[in-house]
Q: What sequence folds into this?
């Protein structure tokens, strides 16, 4: 999460989420992701497509707060992850 220059990686209870409206697609997070689960949306493997929806829906209520450090750990996850 420290790699993100715009602080758009938010911490849920069991998963991290990237705020798509805040992300500048610099790809600095990709090589440091321990799960190897961050992809540019054009390169997303078919078996991971559901996570694109899950990630976007996570921000339905949270919106675009302008930085994960302002919010801190949300303590919640998308229902499909929880």
A:
């Amino acid at each position: 999460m420290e790699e993100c220059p715009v602080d758009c990686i938010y911490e849920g209870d069991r998963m991290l989420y990237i705020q798509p409206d805040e992300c500048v697609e610099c790809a600095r997070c990709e090589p440091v992701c321990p799960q190897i689960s961050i992809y540019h949306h054009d390169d997303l493997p078919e078996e991971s497509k559901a996570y694109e929806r899950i990630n976007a829906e996570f921000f339905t209520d949270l919106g675009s707060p302008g930085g994960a450090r302002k919010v801190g750990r949300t303590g919640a996850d998308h229902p499909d992850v929880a």
Summary: The longest strand covers residues 9-11.
